[in-house]
Amino acid sequence: MSQVHSNLHRSAWSDWWEGTRRTDIWWTLAWFDIVLRYRRSMLGPLWLTLSMGAMIGGMGPLYASLFGTELSKFFPHLALGIIFWGFLSGTVTDSCNSFVNAAHYLRQGYFPITLFVWRTLARNVIQFAHHIVLYIPVALWAHISLSWDALLVFPAFLLMIVNAHALGLWLGLICTRYRDVTQIVTSIMQMLMFLTPVFWLPENLPGRAQYILWNPLAQMLDLLRTPLMGGEASLHSWLGILGWTVVNIVVCALLFRKYRRRVVYWL
Predict the structure, then answer these.
(1) Fewer Cβ atoms within 10 Å of its own Cβ: the N or the C terminal residue of the chain?
(2) Domain that holds residue 117
(3) Could you tell me if 31 and 24 are in contact, meaning their C-beta atoms sit under 8 angstroms apart?
């Protein structure tokens, strides 16, 4: 096998760059994943969108009455929380099997491993694009007036992509070596769903429980959701996510540099 093409002889930076720049490969693979998953289905991934819309429509009035919150305020909060949480949770859990699901590609030795993390991320972005359309009727019904601060959702989304890719890379390495970690991560994400303000409002927390909002997923949700509700995300969330991003990238770089060549032997 030629050293020029073998992924075992690439440097860490070369592997990352080769996998990142080949958008034609990982985007096509992600699209085919969606097509194959929903083949012979008339609505395809829109079934997930309809299911999510039904859940939002059913939970909105119920939870608003339980929390004693005005529905026009709670409904957009719940809708955006479920939509963004679906993307965050789906990306994290799918990343655990990024390399395992690509074993037949990686055993050939020619593909950079980062390509398959981008494939997982792209697949979840495609599904997210189907789900975010649910925000439009909710925003119109709640008469949400957006300001220029709504544009902050774009740098927030970019930060989410950077963190999702870094997390997916080092989590994929660990879960390929230790397969039980996938089940642990799934259970942790289920627990974090209730510790993150997806279904409840942060202002309803008592003073002693405010530490829950240090959860990086809660901070990320604040950056993404608040601008689309006509508000402005807190400085606490921006600083927190920037700090978590630095830590995430450092951990990713260390693990990726040390263990990326072993992936093919763990499959």
Answers:
(1) N
(2) 12-31+43-266
(3) no
Give residue 2's pLDDT band: very low, low, confident or very high (50, 70, 90).
very low
Q: How confident is the model at residue 212 (pLDDT cuts 50, 70, 90)?
A: confident
Contacts of 99 (CB under 8 A, 6+ apart): 106, 113, 116, 172, 173, 175, 176, 263, 266, 267
Judge whether 159 and 244 are in contact, CB under 8 Å. Answer: no
- The pLDDT value recorded for residue 85 is 93
Please indicate, yes or no, if residue 83 is contained in any of the structural domains: yes
Reference 57, options 70, 75, 45, 74; nearest CA is 75
Give the residue ranges of DSSP H helices in 99-152. 103-106, 114-131, 135-142
In a domain, 27, yes or no: yes
pLDDT higher than 60, residue 224: yes
Predicted TM-score (pTM) above 0.85: yes
Q: CA-to-CA distance for 194 and 202, rounded, in angstroms?
A: 12
More confident of the two residues 164 and 200? 164
State which H helix or E strand residue 143 sits in. none
Please report whether residue 1 resides in a domain.
Answer: no
Question: Nearest-CA neighbor of 216 among 194, 235, 192?
Answer: 192
State the burial class of residue 181 (Cβ atoms within 10 Å of its Cβ: 0-12, 13-18, 19+): middle
Q: What is the model's pLDDT at position 67? A: 77
In the chain, the number of structural domains is 1
Kindly state whether residue 3 falls inside one of the protein's structural domains: no
DSSP 147: -
**157 residue type, one letter:** F
Asked whether 119 and 195 are in contact (CB, 8 A), the reply is: no
Q: How far is CA 198 from CA 77, 104, 222, 223, 261, in A?
A: 8, 37, 10, 13, 38
